[in-house]
Design brief:
It contains five helices and 23 strands. With 373 residues, it is mainly beta. Helix 2 packs antiparallel against helix 3. The chain is rod-shaped, with a radius of gyration of 40 Å. It holds the Pfam family CzcB_C.
Length: 373
């Protein structure tokens, strides 16, 4: 066939005698995808016909789930210190984690300073009984040095000083550290490494300095649950919210409390913020160190939400693929709370904007995404 032969009706070619073939009509121009779209780089424009979705404004009640641990309420820690310098004559507690009660005698101490104060008091009683001001002053000094009032009356009747003075506990609980180790990391390591019946570092015959910490007593009846809140849930947790705490070893011992304090910092090596729930542990007696699950009832909030599948995280930035003529463009958005399969959008989109319902279908693993703001 000779293409230069053109006719407006069916006939044969005058050169070769073959039938002329009908020529097709020109193709229609497509209004959707253009050549310019196909030539754009894949890191800022994607040609696709994926389903799209818009922002939905909803009031979603939220529950934040967290993990935590039961620990001592450090506000209830009691410290017994030496008011005087002296030697331990008798020790009545023998091992760590030994239970003591308020008013219990824990040791006897010999102190030259206290012995001299007793002798001065007895001298005034014997030789200057009418000098009530000096006698009261000497008696007050003995009290300030830690001598019980009953013992002062006893030496006054006997007319003879006592060589040792008892030291009583002002707190109830369990001894966990001794000998000035309360605030050191070494104390924590020793407590974790040693068994419950490990002996105390204090011994009879050892000398104490004035003001030295003798014992630190922890009260397990007043405890707190330390809950780890992940960064995406921080906006949903505030002081005063109701919390259900479920011990992992005994779910039947669950209890309710409130968020009493949220630590305003991230602990070293942690990506969570710690929330404290104070509670009375005298009845439940949940062991210290118990791992717990927590359900924090958060406040409902009306906000703009998208499915989590519509969001792609680039680390510091979050993006969606916004609908554009013939395809999608990567678009940066600001996000807030995450509740189950939805994520709050706080900035970057208007109510009428359409985005890809599943953004991961538009990801190219071999290219970087360039976002538009």
């Amino acid at each position: 066939m000779h293409p230069e032969i053109i006719s407006d009706k069916p006939e044969k070619c005058p050169k070769c005698g073959m039938d002329l073939v009908l020529k097709d009509a020109p193709a229609k121009k497509e209004d959707g995808i253009k050549l310019d779209d196909l030539l754009k780089p894949t890191n800022n424009y994607v040609v696709s016909q994926l389903p799209v979705i818009r922002l939905s404004k909803e009031n979603i009640p939220t529950t934040v789930e967290a993990l935590g641990v039961i620990d001592y309420d450090t506000r209830q820690i009691g410290t017994i210190s030496s008011r005087i310098a002296g030697r331990i004559e008798k020790l009545y507690v023998r091992y760590k984690f030994q239970k003591v009660s308020k008013g219990q005698r824990i040791l006897d101490i010999y102190s030259p300073e206290l012995l001299t104060a007793q002798q001065n008091h007895l001298f005034l009683l014997k030789n200057d009984r009418s000098n009530s001001m000096m006698i009261n002053a000497s008696r007050q000094k003995l009290l300030l040095l830690g001598m019980p009032a009953s013992q002062i009356q006893s030496i006054s009747r006997k007319g003879k000083p006592d060589l040792s003075v008892p030291v009583f506990s002002n707190y109830s609980g369990y001894i966990q550290s001794a000998g000035g180790m309360a605030n050191s990391s070494q104390a924590d390591d020793v407590m974790q490494a040693n068994s419950v019946t490990a002996e105390l570092p204090l011994k009879e015959g050892m000398y104490l300095q004035k003001g030295e910490n003798i014992f630190t007593i922890y009260n397990p009846s007043r405890s707190w649950a330390l809950l780890n809140i992940f960064a995406e849930d921080i906006a949903l947790v505030s002081k005063g919210q109701s919390v259900a705490v479920i011990p992992q070893n005994d779910p039947s011992s669950r209890f309710k409390g409130t968020v009493d304090f949220i630590e305003p910092f991230f602990r070293p090596g942690s990506k969570t913020v710690t929330a404290r729930v104070y509670f009375d542990n005298s009845v439940a007696k949940i062991p210290i160190g118990t791992q717990v699950n927590a359900e924090i009832a958060s406040h409902s909030k009306v906000a703009d939400w998208l499915p989590k599948t519509a969001i792609v995280s680039l680390g510091m930035d979050k993006i969606v693929f916004k609908k554009a003529p013939g395809g999608f463009t990567a678009h940066k958005v600001g996000t807030g709370a995450i509740v189950k399969d939805k994520i709050e959008i706080v900035s970057g989109l208007e109510p009428g904007d359409e985005v890809a319902e599943n953004a991961r279908y538009l990801m190219d693993s071999e290219s970087f995404i360039k976002v538009t703001k």
